Amino acid sequence: EETLNKQFSKTKDSWASFDHIEYHLGKDIYFPISVMNQLRRDALEKMKEACLKQEPLVEKEYSYIPQESKTSFDLFEINSMNQKVDDSSCYVSEMFNSNQILEKSNITSVDGFVNAHLGKGKIVDSLNVSNSYSVAAILEMGYESCVISDECDKYQVEEIMKGFSNRYHFDAPVYKTLYQKRRLMTMKHCPVNTALKDGKRMNCGLCHHHRYELEGLDGKRVFLFGDKDCHMRLYDVNIMNEIENRKDYESYGIKHFRFVFTDENQEEVKTAFRAYNR
Predict the structure, then answer these.
(1) Extents of the domains making up the chain
(2) Which one, 20, 141, 176, 205, has the greatest CB density within 10 A?
(3) d(CA 246, CA 215)
């Protein structure tokens, strides 16, 4: 067994290795080394052929019918308590915890009322949901609703709602973002800390003391804003405002909407609220 193990373990030039081999050997059996090596090569080749063998794929009928779920409030994502201007609205934040604010999980956490990925919560955000089947899949996984991808234009949003309603006979429980400065990236590297301090990005808070921006070679600008776990978030400096399209989206079957406030002051938030309520 010792000799066989030694020869069979010489698999560094192949795609596989043996984790454990069981032997059932009679007494006084002799194998030439060359035979052992050839046995190993043959076994790996046979297994490779079996793994790569193409089997016909049989398409299975998928008949999941989601349970009707209703979103019952608008979502307002904020980064400071000064942006909370209406006590009757539902506020979420990944910046701080408060009895008045529901938690949104960030990129490395899993718990939150709203999730930036498939964590424990009720609403899924940031998953680029862009068709009616993915909305149904979110519901099948136990979530109440999700946010439609920012990349969908009005026509695509209408098609999502129409496709879902035709298939399941109720309106898709989704959120459409009407106001935000789009988040373009989340990263560990902190340009602010690297430029102004020691590059260790350990709870320095420098990105909240002033407004910092980066300008690309193409002239486009983004501003920098870190979260409570020192992940640096990059936002477009331009506002994406679709408040004027509210009635159109409601005619498609969308009941509630999402707003994201980043560096807006209280008066700017109130202006957005007034436009929305008009």
Answers:
(1) 2-52, 75-277
(2) 176
(3) 32
